[in-house]
């Protein structure tokens, strides 16, 4: 037992020394490894910064290249558009040359000629319209004047007929009939009554001619035939007188009542045709 004690002490000391040496070794190793770790971290950070800088440079270059490419495209588009416009202008100019428009002066002259033609056409159109308006105004004025004159003539003729109805002298009546015929030369009624007045003053030939004129203007006017029958009876042309009497009666039944009372037919009362006519009328009545 006494022999083992020294051994055990020795072993204990050895173990203690070994443990102490180990602790010192760990401390030394830890002291030595710490700077290395820090160095490694610093190197890694530096490497990361360099990579980041390189990446930033690459991105900047790519953006610059993209902008440059976009600018090139815009320049190319602008150039192409300008070239196309020049091509169109050139083609238009060529077309104008082919069509005869060789210069701006020609265009101006053509425009002037065209404008002058249009102005002339408009002027002619307005002149034509103005002439039509003037013609219509002249026609209307003429119509108005004629209407006024007709009214005046109608009033004058009416006044003369009123005076004829009041006049007793055949000569004065003839004068008034002449005034009526001066206003209206184709007034066949005035001619017939004038013929009757002429018969009253013995102007038989004149009355016959005037009756013929009235019949020439209107062959359906019964009074004209009646007056001519009176003239024929006064001239002893009995056959012609009876013929005109029949014609007058055909045109106007109202004259039947005057047949036997007409004094210019006195020399026809013994004429056979006149007797037959009056007898026939008597039977009809």
TrEMBL record:
<keyword id="KW-0677">Repeat</keyword>
<dbReference type="InterPro" id="IPR019734">
    <property type="entry name" value="TPR_rpt"/>
</dbReference>
<protein>
    <submittedName>
        <fullName>Tetratricopeptide repeat protein</fullName>
    </submittedName>
</protein>
<keyword id="KW-0732">Signal</keyword>
<dbReference type="InterPro" id="IPR011990">
    <property type="entry name" value="TPR-like_helical_dom_sf"/>
</dbReference>
<dbReference type="InterPro" id="IPR050498">
    <property type="entry name" value="Ycf3"/>
</dbReference>
<feature type="signal peptide">
    <location>
        <begin position="1"/>
        <end position="21"/>
    </location>
</feature>
<keyword id="KW-0802">TPR repeat</keyword>
<keyword id="KW-0175">Coiled coil</keyword>
<feature type="coiled-coil region">
    <location>
        <begin position="38"/>
        <end position="65"/>
    </location>
</feature>
